[in-house]
Design goal:
With 455 residues, the chain is α/β, with parallel strands linked by helices. It has 15 helices and 8 strands.
């Protein structure tokens, strides 16, 4: 967990808790803000249907989180290694045997929330998770991490000094930005001095991940007391007397935390997920736009190169090429939802060309020569000249299109690199021979289809 977030929340609510109001108004505000932001993301008309479809599972989870907020529910996950007593601890909190408890290597198979109690107006639900090292454990370990990820608070259960695997799992859970409590279960097996030493060791292991006061000792299912007695005939009788669970320290700590901070934790959990989903949506939209932009650039490369190759009038083909470049930039702007005027498009093209002065000068010089040759050539020489000129036009449009794409994808900004570096990187990334070969092939195909056959 990003413990700085948790500490800031704790400090903020510690101030609020000193007043007579047990349900901090700021928690209500956070809760309301989270509901509004989740609803806005769910109903956002700017999210394309294709992106919603590709992230369908995440949007379903977002809707579930919104429902949890609207129902004012808090989810508490019990997490830990196999057979440390997670289910027994959850049952002890509930006061009933709702979760399966067994001596086999892990008995938990699902992660269904069970209603526990109402705390400060919020209904708290417990979730028992599969053990993190069960047989066939990779899938269940993933499930346990996912359950912890959608819970508002996690109780990490151990039954002795922490193992390396448990420490790794604790670090992994901390990365979910979920507040953690650490419970030393089966404390009835130790005497008072041993419990004190174990708690100190656990606090050392969990330093920076769990607050010292959130490391507590419990006995969810104490071993029965063995009592030996003699009956009237002097026969020895052994009686096993069940002992009540001792979970007061954990229950009191949970109640205190959830009373003061529960609604904000719920809002924080939902908002963190919504933030991650927003980023995922943005990435998918950028990818979709980039793919569409690539298709648009290719279409304009073909159109411009063929238009230049087929135009028999000297210099006129250059004017047509400039108009197509401006149209390309304006089309790309619409793809990114950042419409620009023809004048702005011209300014952007001028900026790109300024960074390519030598290269573009050579390209347009060849254009001028080829344009003149078309006026005095005929037959195959015209085809060859047109093909060369069209291929260079394709190459120039590729550079203009990709540079404009970078500019628009960054929100009409060159970013930290600047126009010169962006254009330089694009030129370096282009395989000129490959592009020109592709352009020549496409142009020759178009010329064969569109030029009349010589008598």
């Amino acid at each position: 967990m990003n413990n700085s977030i948790w500490r800031r929340l704790r400090a903020r609510f510690a101030q609020s808790a000193s007043g007579p109001e047990r349900h901090p108004p700021v928690g209500n505000t956070h809760h309301s803000q989270a509901e509004q932001s989740l609803r806005a993301l769910l109903d956002d008309p700017q999210v394309p249907a294709s992106v919603r479809s590709s992230l369908a599972a995440d949007f379903e989870r977002l809707e579930a989180l919104l429902g949890k907020l609207e129902r004012d529910e808090l989810h508490l996950a019990v997490f830990g290694r196999v057979s440390v007593g997670k289910s027994a601890l959850a049952n002890a909190l509930l006061g009933e045997d709702a979760f399966e408890v067994g001596v086999l290597h892990g008995t938990t198979r699902d992660a269904i929330p069970r209603a526990w109690r109402e705390v400060a107006g919020s209904g708290v639900h417990l979730i028992d998770t599969p053990g993190i090292d069960e047989l066939d454990g990779e899938a269940r370990e993933q499930l346990a991490i996912e359950v912890a990820g959608i819970s508002d608070l996690v109780v990490f259960v151990v039954d002795g000094d922490m193992t390396t695997r448990e420490r790794d799992a604790l670090v992994l859970l901390a990365g979910t930005e979920r507040p953690l409590l650490l419970a030393l279960n089966k404390a009835d097996r130790y005497d008072a001095d041993e419990i004190a030493r174990l708690l100190a060791r656990l606090r050392e292991h969990a330093g920076g991940l769990v607050q010292a006061e959130d490391v507590v000792a419990v006995s969810a299912q104490p071993s029965p007391l063995r009592r030996i007695s003699l009956d009237a005939d002097g026969v020895e009788r052994v009686e096993m007397i069940a002992q009540p669970a001792n979970i007061d320290a954990l229950r009191d700590r949970l109640t205190d935390v959830l009373t003061r901070e529960g609604r904000t934790l719920s809002a924080l959990n939902a908002s963190l997920f919504a933030g991650r989903l927003t980023d995922a949506v943005a990435r998918r939209i950028v990818i979709a736009r980039r793919e569409l932009a690539s298709r648009v650039i290719r279409q304009y490369c073909i159109a411009k190169s063929v238009a230049v190759a087929l135009n028999p009038i000297p210099v006129a083909d250059l004017l047509a090429a400039g108009a197509l470049d401006a149209a390309l930039v304006m089309h790309l702007a619409r793809v990114y939802g950042l419409p620009i005027t023809r004048r702005e498009a011209g300014g952007l093209i001028a900026t790109i060309c300024a960074q390519l002065a030598a290269l573009m000068g050579a390209i347009w010089g060849i254009h001028l020569v080829a344009s003149a040759l078309k006026g005095i050539s005929a037959g195959m020489s015209t085809v060859l000249t047109a093909t060369a000129q069209g291929a260079l036009a394709w190459y120039a449009t590729e550079i203009v299109g990709r540079a404009a794409d970078r500019y628009l994808a960054a929100g009409k900004s060159w970013g930290d690199l600047g126009a010169k570096r962006v254009v330089s990187d694009i030129v370096a990334s282009l395989d000129r021979d490959s592009i020109l070969r592709e352009a020549r092939s496409e142009i020759l195909r178009r010329l064969r289809n569109e030029e009349p056959t010589a008598p």
